[in-house]
Amino acid sequence: MLVMDSAINESPLLQNVTVDLNHAVEVTWKNPVPIRKFDEYRIYRSTPTQPWTKVGAFTKSTDTLWTDFSRLAKDAPVSYRMTQSDRCAIESYPSPEFVTIFNQVQSSLHGENELKWTAFKGYNLSEIRVFGAIANKQPDYKLLSVLPANATEYVDKNLCPVEKFYRVKAISVTDTNLVSFSNYASKIPFYELPAQVPMVKVATVEGNKNVSVSFTNPYTRKGELIVDRYDTLYGWLNGFEKLTGNSPALTDNHVQVNNFIYQYKVKYRDTCGLESDYGNRGTTILLQGIVQNDMPYLKWSSYKEWPSGVSHYLVQIWRNGIFETQAKVNSDTLFWIDEKIYMDIDTAYIYRIVAISGDLMDSSISNYKPLTLDSRMWIPSAFSPNGDGVNDLFFPVAVGVYNDSPLDELRFWMQIYNRWGELLFESNNLFIGWDGTFNGVDCPEGVYSYSIKTIGVDNAKLIRKGTVTLLR
Q1: What is the pTM of this model?
Q2: What is the CATH number of the domain that holds 39?
Q3: By Cβ atoms counted within 10 A, which residue in 57, 130, 253, 267 is the most buried?
């Protein structure tokens, strides 16, 4: 207990307490009016777990500064007050209490540090400033926020998983040079990458020219997808493309889709430079084929790697302006023989393969493969235009020849003459035949002459002349 004497009315006036970077506390005060028979100034200290204890005594009345190296300010707010005494050991009343700012940092949310501090006590404040640094060095501390004088918490967001140091600064309302710093507190923010990884949704050949690749990205935070590409010519090209967005895609036009298989894989890199694992790979389909025994033989590489696998493949041929499906084959079948003859295809047979994912949600298209059959033409020796739906028209049956071409040199041409050499009918379309009439009148039974010429897609010239019998 302090014994007070009413004869000593003046106590030292504490001016400030502030914590330095080593958690030492600098205590400053103003000297009171000198008393008769002055003996010493006395400093008392307490914490939430320690009672008031005399920690300093100064026998010079001109002293105004003391540094507390106890480092108690590291773990709790520290309170200070002062008295003065005379040579009779009579002690003044204590000065008003000053309390340091105690700052703590926690982290429970991704990339965030939550600061909370105790209020400064000693003089009225104009504002609170929060500073942060990657290293506990005075030049490294940067201002993060200016807060109201009564603020006691702050959240630092969008952080990388590196230790960050914080100090809180209280500024006097009457003198901006009068400031009190808190202890420093540091924390490595909680940080995690989601368990999911980005995936290649589908890799597909586009228009027999480019490869289109789409991705799924489970990350909503800022960052980018790093796409790597593989082909047998260059191997893996790491960092081939960088993408942003939740559903990104790329079009790769640095490809030779008729010669190589291309693989793509993707990983996520956040703004801190941390990376996820790679997801699945997306692999294009390479279709190849040859003609053997007058039949197209097709084979192709498998599509990889849908999580649900491949359900089946579709074999398609370009016909009548669209790709028509000719066969559906199992996922473990990677070849097909086309035994059909397409009389209505007057150029090369153009094939493609379509892979269907196991969940039936996605598809991948191969390159196009044109195959040319030897051109040929069969011409009937007779026809019977009697309206019974059988052999009502006369026209040749051809495979691998140009038909209805805008170029004269490639145009199909058929002419029909009677026995006197009179032209009865002509056509530039392989499928527009003669119905046995002339100017709308039925021609009589008999033998008629024809002249047919065309060019095969193998550049062979097909010229046929002969006779056909018209039967009634």
Answers
A1: 0.70
A2: 2.60.40.10
A3: 130
